[in-house]
Amino acid sequence: MSTSHVSVEIASQPQVWREAARLAAESAAVLPQPGERVAIVGCGTSWFIAQAYAARREELGQGVTDAFAGSEYPVGREYDRVVAITRSGTTTEILHLLEVLDGKQRTLAIVGDPTSPGAGAADDVVVMPFADEQSVVQTRFATAALTLLRAGLGDDIEALATAAEEVVGWEVPEAVLARTQFTFLGRGMAVGLANEAGLKMREASLAWAEAYPAMDYRHGPISISDETSAVILLGAEVPGLVEDIERTGALVVRFDEDAQLTLVRCQLLSVANAERKGLDPDAPRHLTRSIILEDSAS
User: Between the chain's N and C termini, which has fewer beta carbons within 10 Å?
Assistant: First the structure.
């Protein structure tokens, strides 16, 4: 049994999600409102969570929602609300963007550290210290931020958290760990979560990992799949896709569940793969908990 910080943090997600749902109810007035035109920004993991939320909000018909990497936000475009996700509250690109938007557009920051600059950089703030992490690899803060936002959309978080209680105990099959190339595929909300799953595999275990929209996989990326590959499907099933993947020799992994739950399995996979290779999943090479740039000019 792993004793890494990230393993403990992954296991804590069901309770953290329930706390995020309670916080969403308390913060309802500052979360995006139905019909608003919303932009959501982040860097790295937070950007992929932004992608997932944007797709889910539009799927539910609650308004135009665009996701951007913090450095790529189109400052000339107008939104009713700009939401920034930053675990540390110190990410250079996010702080710079909030400064640029100050007094021009309504902003909301979702942060983990209440003492950070990010906690005071936006018009509104939702602080989630209960979801903050010791590990460099981000897991529960990301899913807690998504849960907070999904709760604001009316999704059933209690059912999600209850299902997660079983998922966090999933033992990664040896057949999956025996593969050396990993591809993550999703549709809708699951596209962003597939991107995040791929990032976790690269960060934690230095694996060859890629992610694509599921329908786009056959437009080129399928050529990398063979007997060394595992292809993990998140979210809704795509008719005929499993059969197409299996013809390459790749191992197909899919669960009939909410894509956020499958992301948790992907987190467990990334940790197990790291430990199998003798790596420390808490401290990926070349990374720190917060990326602070000396020159923040955009």
Answer: N
* Widest distance between CA atoms in the chain: 55
Residue from 73, 125, 81 nearest 104 by CA:
81
* DSSP count for the chain of H helices, then E strands: 10, 9
Q: Which two tokens stand for residue 7?
A: 């393993």
Domain span(s) for CATH 3.40.50.10490 in the chain: 5-156, 170-276
Fold of domain 5-156: Rossmann fold (3.40.50)
Condensed to tens digits (0 to 9), the pLDDT of residues 205-223 reads 999 999 999 999 999 999 9
Q: Which CATH number fits domain 170-276: 3.10.20.90, 3.40.50.10490, 1.50.10.10, 3.30.530.20?
A: 3.40.50.10490
Query: pTM to 2 decimals?
Result: 0.94
Nearest to 191 by CA among 65, 51, 80, 72: 51
